[in-house]
Specification:
- This protein is an alpha+beta fold and about 190 residues long.
- The protein is about 20% helix and about 30% strand.
- The chain has helices at about 10-20, 45-50, 55, 65-70, 140-145; strands at about 75-85, 90-100, 105-110, 115-120, 150-155, 155-160, 170-175, 175-185.
- Strands 1-2-3-4-8-7-6-5 form an eight-stranded antiparallel beta sheet, covered by helices on one side.
- The longest helix is centred in the N-terminal third of the chain and has 14 residues, at about 10-20.
């Protein structure tokens, strides 16, 4: 069994149970298998099981400073950039760019507030709860698991299946395989 795949089934089971409680559709009984060369864990099936809320479940930990540090230790590097607060004139927020091998996370910290996940770029499947949708997976298997994307943009399949603020999850492709998974969180 590959690294991280033992966590995939409990996450999918919890997601399926939550959806069933909310009246969502059930997962198909026989999900497609991951390709040779990618993580060997089975791919989850059906857009309802995976796409809805994908931005909240695809990463193994919440991409803000403390959860990342607790899960992976000190980052390789962190840079800070002051940015004007869009709502409070004269207030300055901070944008943290946090680097781990195979992961870059942007965290927005309002002047008077808590960390907010802004963006994550994953190039190593160890940061994913669903590594069979990660780096090395074919475009066809991503489409089979999630359905057709909202759009295809700059060589990436872009999925957003929520009903609230747009928080797309993109699968950046190179030669028909996932090169990176990008999560763009809504920050107001």
């Amino acid at each position: 069994m590959s690294r991280g795949s033992s966590h995939v089934r409990p996450v999918l089971l919890a997601t399926a149970l939550a959806l069933a409680a909310c009246g969502g559709e059930r997962a198909e009984p026989d999900p497609p298998e991951a390709p040779a060369g990618a993580d060997a864990s089975p791919l989850p099936s059906g857009p309802t099981v995976i796409c809805a809320g994908l931005e909240e479940v695809i990463l193994a930990t919440h991409p803000t400073r403390e959860p990342l540090r607790a899960a992976y230790g000190e980052p390789d590097s962190t840079t800070t950039t002051p940015v004007p607060n869009r709502h409070v004139p004269g207030a300055t927020d901070t944008l943290f760019t946090i680097h781990y091998p195979g992961l870059v996370a942007l965290v927005h910290k309002p002047a008077e507030g808590n960390d907010l996940a802004d963006f994550a770029r994953v190039e190593d499947n160890r940061y994913l709860t669903i590594p069979s949708l990660g780096v090395g997976t074919t475009e066809e298997l991503v489409r089979a698991a999630l359905g057709e994307p909202l759009r295809v943009e700059d060589g990436a399949l872009v999925y957003w299946c929520g009903e609230g603020a747009e928080q797309p999850v993109s699968f950046e492709l190179a030669d028909g395989r996932v090169r990176a998974v990008l999560v763009d969180y809504y920050v107001d």
